[in-house]
């Protein structure tokens, strides 16, 4: 199948899976993969690598913004099958191993079931592995502070709130910010268009997620690649401020 993919900067591609995005950054034959979609997105993930002239064997590392199933879905598959290292913030490593699970609960979903889009989102999530058990057996914390020695030279930035160890990835050379779920531009359960926080039920600590917007405001980037929604062009500082306005 042909994937829904857009080149957003030099050697940088945003791929839309089933309700969740991932990002591919290439450098020659090598690639950095940021997030992996739901478990049910695996073929789309593999196809997207082929479409940019890469392959699973050429992925230097998988970087995970946070360990929810819609971002972690094929990380263990790549690690186990191809030996690909899987890196997260140190606070998110035990989450990826499933020593605990910080995720929206059934009770929270039921209490929000009256909201437009929630029930269709639930049905879809169940179909593509949203509740599957997909821990990463040997996740690793980022090996260094600052830029990682990977295609794109991504710089991890800790942005807790959505989960304890959520991290975004700044690509200073191209002015790109890969924001995961710390700042999105849309979601199936939201009627807001443009930069926003996810609905409250999805955050482990909403107040902390709101506070992390200040961290994003300090990053020099004008292309936002969110975990949900389309690419957003414009200063990330203004995007974070807009999300804060919607949330207050």
From TrEMBL:
Chain ranges of the Metallo-beta-lactamase domain: 19-228
Superkingdom per UniProt: Bacteria
Entry-linked InterPro entries: Metallo-B-lactamas, NDM-1-like, RibonucZ/Hydroxyglut_hydro
PANTHER family for the chain: METALLO-BETA-LACTAMASE DOMAIN-CONTAINING, METALLO-BETA-LACTAMASE SUPERFAMILY PROTEIN
UniProt name for this protein: MBL fold metallo-hydrolase
UniProt organism field: Streptomyces anandii
């Amino acid at each position: 199948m042909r994937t829904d993919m857009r080149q957003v900067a030099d050697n940088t591609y945003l791929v839309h899976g089933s309700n969740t995005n991932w990002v591919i950054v290439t450098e020659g034959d090598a690639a950095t993969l940021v997030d992996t979609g739901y478990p049910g997105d695996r073929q789309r993930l593999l196809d997207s690598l082929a479409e940019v002239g890469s392959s699973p064997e050429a992925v230097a590392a998988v970087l995970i913004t946070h360990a929810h199933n819609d971002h972690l879905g094929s990380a263990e598959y790549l690690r186990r099958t191809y030996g690909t290292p899987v890196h997260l913030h140190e606070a998110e490593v035990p989450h990826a191993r499933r020593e605990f699970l910080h995720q929206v609960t059934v009770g929270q979903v039921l209490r929000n079931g009256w909201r437009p889009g929630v029930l269709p989102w639930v049905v879809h999530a169940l179909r593509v592995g949203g509740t599957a058990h997909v821990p990463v057996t040997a996740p690793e914390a980022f090996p260094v502070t600052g830029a990682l020695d990977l295609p794109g030279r991504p710089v991890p930035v800790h942005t807790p709130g959505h989960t304890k160890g959520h991290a975004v990835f700044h690509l200073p050379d191209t002015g790109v910010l890969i924001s995961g779920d710390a700042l999105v531009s849309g979601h199936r359960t939201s009627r807001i268009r443009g930069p926003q926080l996810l609905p409250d039920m999805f955050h482990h600590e909403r107040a902390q997620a709101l506070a992390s917007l200040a961290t994003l405001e300090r990053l020099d980037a004008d292309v936002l690649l969110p975990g949900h929604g389309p690419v957003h062009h414009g200063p990330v500082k203004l995007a974070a401020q807009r999300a804060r306005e919607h949330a207050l």
